[in-house]
Amino acid sequence: MTHNARPESSGDSPDNPMSGRPPTFTSWLRSRSDEELTALLRGRPDLGHPVPADIGALAHRATSRNATLRALERLDRFTLQVLESVVALGDDRLSEPVGALPSDLAHGLGLDSSGSPGTEPLDAALNALKSLALVWPDQGRLRPVQVLRELLPHPARLGPPARVPLAALSHEAVKRLADDLVPHGTTESPVESVATALSDPDRVHALVEQVDASARRLLDSLTWGPPNGTVTDARREVSLATASSPVDSLIARGLLLPTGDDTLTLPREVGLFLRSGVLFQDVDTTPPGIEGRSVDPDTVSRAAAGQAFVVLRAVEELMERWSQEPAAVLRNGGLGVRDLRRAAQTMDTDDTTAALLLESARAAGLLATDDRLSGEWLPTREYDLWRESPPERRWSRLARAWSDSGRAPSLAGAQDSGGRAQNVLGPGLVRPAAPQVRRDVLTELATAEPGTAPGADSLKARLAWRYPRRQSPLYTELVEATMAEAASLGLTGMGALAAHTRPWLSGDEDASAALLATELPQPLDYVLVQGDMTAVAPGPLVTELARELALTADVESTGGATVYRFTESSVRRALDAGRGVADLTSMLERHSRTPLPQALRYLISDVGRRHGRLRAGSAASYLRCDEPALLTELVGDRRATDLELVLLAPTVVVSGLTRAALMERLERLGYHPVAESGDGTIRLSRPEVRRAEPDGIPTPEYSGDPELTRAAVRALRAGDEAANVARVPVELPENGSPAARVNALVEVLGRVLADERRVWIGYTDTDGRQVSRIVVPARVDGGFLTAYDTTRDAVHRFALHRITGIAELSADS
């Protein structure tokens, strides 16, 4: 059921002046509609994790220091200026009523003069601030949440209200100042009388007119901030009669007040007068325009898709290489510099891009360390599933993992505070701000017209306007790294956002995959075999053909096309894996668009003829051959004297070496034996495929699912009802045994169950927390109450001995 500003049982609604209670921030939150609370939790997702117990808990969390700081980071420059204006004009330490009037805000921001953009931007900013619960209305005025006074101590670069530094002065000093400024005396305290005088623009004007030109220049230097100045002995005793310098004349008139032993501050009321009520010198209601070059959008998409294809192929080639020859894990958990360079060579890229791809693969769960003592980097079982999915889905997973990862690959190779180099895949590259920076940059690129490549300065200027509270040297460094990494991953092309990235940013990965699939090169089922013992793949190959070629030939070069070279060792590798001469020849004939060269046929046939003529076993080991002449030749070979060969029969020779040592030695002599098992069958030597268990794949902190947010609001409403509903307590025995108390509770619940009524219960959960629940009992048995918990919208079992209290709800609840 949708809630729309329902009346409160506590009677403290800010919209009800007859309630008898002053309005509060909590009561204002309680009066918000379900749609407005949903907008609050979506705008400030940290407030809903975990879901607060009630509106009071939500108000407490929303006004906490850390939560408010996170909310400030989401504000653009103009909205932040509006918020600072509310803080500056709505401070309850000013002489004006608590809260700021919208008309004063418009004047302070210069939005009520001719030629200004009007108050529409102000209205939109105020609505955004109310939606984020940073300001709230109170009888026509706008009040900031209290913690903002601490977080924004100098709003609009103004000093504190005069009451603050006056209250810190000695009574004698304030009394002397009051006698000079209010000579006829008042019934107010000295602090109040001076503060009241400084809040009167006419009185401040008269005081400013009394000082000389030097003092006025000093005031002008502090007018637009910062409002503090350093002098010697700021707390000196001075009056109008004893003032002998420009600084003394300002102190004697209260135009500067001491806030430290050597610090003088311009009071807020004086600063506002000197600014003629204007709070900022420059107010920009819109971000700076995008400046950059225009590129054909189709060219952008093709360039980005081409880079995405390069990324997929590079990651797959490295994973296949590391399946057989994994890289070692350093003692600190990272990857060594030499292994990084080898990986870059395998992927045909530079070290920086290799670091990016390795970190993205690990974030996607495709790469992890094994559980061996020495430790090696290996592909995971997730990689096998990833490899079988369509290319566009593979790319999306890598890109999403990079976007959500809290690691910064660009920092690889940099030194930490102790002078140690930061290794790729090591612990030193964690930067929690990285995911947010990537979203900021990509979202800003999406605001440009398709085919527009913003300049670096233009992008930084817009980000500085969008998120002024996030700006720092690290943020700037991560922005530059994000632009380079987005280009390397295929999110952008030629500096502009690719078409397939726009739906991907909004979470529509199906639409993104559909767009990318049209731009990616389609897998081919053919190659071009050439006379120089090479085969050229003019594009990506289908999985089966790619595996067969990787087994039969060595990759010589990559790029727009992949070149494979056939050698004796590569053909022998395929034969060792169980392929026959006829199998290799027919596979190449089937997939080659060019005639198979005679030289390649001879190579395969020659290697196949010599392959397996000798078979090695254990005697320590033995050799068996169907050609007695070959064994006779081997026994008589002077190079084989160290093999300790003994001819047992025309077709059998035994050796004193182990089978592995014998085979390795015969390989060097050019005989190429194959191993056989005890029953005489050939033992094929297939490459060992090793896999590691994937690390925990990180998930975004908040999914932004509207249904989940609405469910959180329903839980909030139910919890608030349980905490504030009018109820009639039911007396339970306090001094009897626990069994007597449980029996009395069962009796009460039995009556409620018979009448099918709701009741309130106090309950101690398993964590020891005291919680309130409104339940509809369904069954009481075995020491448990089974009931529908309206607070959590679920059926729950409550242990009777944990129920601390029970109350019937009033008739109007």
Structure characterization notes:
With 813 residues, the protein is an alpha+beta fold. It is 44% helix and 13% strand. It contains 33 helices and 27 strands. The strands form eight sheets. Strands 22-27-23-24-25-26 form a six-stranded antiparallel sheet. Strands 19-20-18-17-21 form a five-stranded mixed sheet, with helices on one face. A four-stranded antiparallel sheet has the order 13-14-16-15. A hairpin with a 2-residue loop joins β24 and β25. The radius of gyration is 39 Å and the shape is elongated. 37% of the residues are buried. Mean pLDDT is 85; it is low at 1-20 and 698-703.
Oligomeric state of the chains in view: single chain
User: What class, by secondary structure content?
Assistant: alpha+beta
Radius of gyration, taken over Cα atoms and rounded to an integer in Å: 39 Å
Percentage of residues in strands: 5-15%
Tally of separate helices: 33
User: Span from first to last CA?
Assistant: 16 Å
Side-by-side strand order of the widest sheet: 22-27-23-24-25-26
Mean pLDDT: 85
Q: How does the major sheet shape up?
A: 6 strands, antiparallel
What is the helix fraction of residues, given as a range? 40-55%
Count the E strands: 27
Which residues form runs of ≥5 with pLDDT under 50?
1-20, 698-703
Shape: elongated
